[in-house]
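FORM 7B: Structural annotation worksheet

SECTION A. Query
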Amino acid sequence: MLKKMLSRALVSAPICMLISQLVGICVSLSNADGRYSPVTPAFEARFASTTAAVIVQLLLIGLIGAVFAACSVIFEIERWSFLKQGIVHLAITSAVGIPICLFCWMPENAAWAAGLCGSWLLTYVITWLSQYFVYRHNIRKLDKKIKAVNGKETQS
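SECTION B. Predicted structure
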């Protein structure tokens, strides 16, 4: 399991870092001033240079991607319910992701921070519920096929 976690993390981190850079370019293009803004001014102010700020943010975003990818193995623990898997996955990814988001895109006030946490949770719940309903639908289809096959076997 550890090997699988590591390989997923090592693939996901650079992908997330690339996506982060593409988002930064799109945000910069949408600004009317024509400047490239890879990090927020408040985050940049924490560092000696823009380059240092960009590197730190990029590594932290890579860490978020790595944690999400590594933790995906939680959903392969068959003895756990889907709800338990989701709760454990949410707890681990939140413990890493939320502090990094707060650090990189510093909240202006407590309401902003609460909004970030709320949107994080809401996004997770929507994603989890959609997967739950997809899996439930697939299981019902599989059950019907099994019943059809078993019904044909007993009639022979």
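SECTION C. Observations
The chain has a mean pLDDT of 90. The radius of gyration is 21 Å.

SECTION D. Sign-off
Analyst initials: ____
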